[in-house]
Specification:
Blueprint: H1 15-18, H2 26-42, E1 47-50, H3 54-65, E2 72-78, H4 82-88, E3 99-107, H5 137-149, E4 154-158, H6 161-180, E5 188-192, H7 198-201, E6 209-213, H8 216-229, H9 239-244, E7 249-251, H10 262-271, H11 292-299, H12 301-307, E8 324-326, H13 336-339, E9 346-349, E10 352-356
Parallel strand pairs: 1-2, 2-3, 3-4, 4-5, 5-6, 6-7
Antiparallel strand pairs: 8-9, 9-10
Helix pairs in contact: 2-3, 5-6, 8-10, 10-11
Length: 357
């Protein structure tokens, strides 16, 4: 308040600190990825959509070339690497059956906790605090056209209802422009979509748009959301509304923001509760709970479709990669409260058991 630094850097200001930290070597990232793969296999994870930087791409390429990659990875393109990607002719979907290029990652706003999520109306308890809009509709269209002409889709982080409104509006207009320019349809993503305005909820049908959401964010954020969004929380984490409109919904963890364990996310999706049953037996805004079968689909086949791998992985079927897990019990005959503690007995990748208890 007095102009003195607090030691906390929000959003793009954090680049000041990041630029002062030496980058790790590719060798150290390769070793870290080897360790991470083992941890993920214990959780039954055989595929990830990765939004890290170009250094991890180099490390992933090495592991893929050495046949050490035990994950199918969709690797996004950071905004600062767009020009280089276009010059190289990289396109979304290019790569091997274990590592392929994904969308360009953009950020439309910040987060709920530090009040940097961009809002249409002020945060509860503030006079006119509406967060930070980092990119608007016009800029999204400009970047989206450049990327789209090169065959690269978009994945845009949006938490607050204003950020989501800007992104949704931009995607609608981009689709129209792609038709005018005869550009092949590209899969785009809305990352998080935590709070949507009531008007946007009624108008979500946008071709080729995937809603990429993280159920465990609800567990972490419900109290903070109630405090700062108030009655607007009825439009927060609206998984069921999105699903009921027949829109493609994919689930993930947002690791390392949350633990990557998918069973924690499945638990959150079907109960909308914390592990101890908080806030009530029905869950937080229980009308947005989804069925177990839908939650499993959103962690498996739906992300494969978003990656363009729908004919190769994401379900157990003839001709598909043998990426699977063996569970100690049938989740459909398990008390929902016990789903949280589930872990596989064994994990198989490409027909090989890569982990067992």
């Amino acid at each position: 308040p007095n102009g003195n630094p607090t030691g906390i850097l929000f959003e793009s200001a954090s680049v000041i600190a990041k630029n002062a930290i030496p980058l790790p070597s590719v060798d150290s990232v390769i070793q870290n990825l080897r360790t991470a793969q083992k941890q993920l296999s214990r959780m039954g994870i055989t595929g990830v959509h990765d939004f890290d930087g170009s250094l991890s791409f180099s490390a992933l390429e090495y592991l893929d070339g050495q046949d050490e990659l035990t994950l199918r990875v969709v690797k996004s393109i950071p905004r600062e690497n767009l020009e280089a990607a276009l010059l190289l002719g990289l396109r979304s979907g290019f790569g091997s059956d274990r590592l392929r290029v994904g969308p360009l990652k953009l950020f439309a706003d910040g987060a709920l906790g530090p009040h940097t999520a961009a809002m249409l109306e002020p945060y509860e308890g503030s006079d006119n605090e509406r967060g930070m809009l980092l990119i608007d509709e016009e800029e999204i269209i400009s970047i989206g056209l450049k990327a789209g002409r090169g065959g690269i889709g978009l994945a845009i982080h949006a938490i607050g209802d204003r950020a989501n409104h800007e992104v949704l509006s931009a995607y609608r207009k981009l689709n129209d422009l792609f038709i005018q320019e005869n550009i092949a349809p590209l899969s785009n993503r809305l990352e998080h979509a935590q709070l949507l305005s009531s008007s946007d909820l009624q108008n979500l049908s946008i071709p080729n748009l995937f809603f990429s959401m993280q159920p465990y964010h609800l567990v972490s954020d419900m109290d903070t959301a109630q405090r700062y969004w108030g009655e607007r929380c009825q439009f927060a984490f609206t998984w069921k509304d999105i699903q009921n409109r027949g829109l493609p919904l994919i689930f993930g963890s947002d690791a390392p923001v949350e633990i990557p364990n998918p069973f924690w996310g499945i638990f959150a999706a079907i109960t909308r509760q914390k592990r101890d049953g908080y806030p009530n037996p029905q869950g937080w805004y229980p009308d947005q709970r989804i069925a177990l079968a839908d939650a499993l689909n959103n962690y498996t086949f739906s992300p494969a479709v978003a990656a363009g791998w729908q004919n190769q992985t994401g379900k157990l079927a003839p001709g598909y990669h043998a990426d699977l897990i063996a569970l100690p019990c049938d989740p459909f005959n398990t008390d929902p409260s016990k789903i949280y503690d589930l872990l596989p007995d064994r994990t198989m990748f490409a027909g090989n058991w890569i982990w067992h208890a």
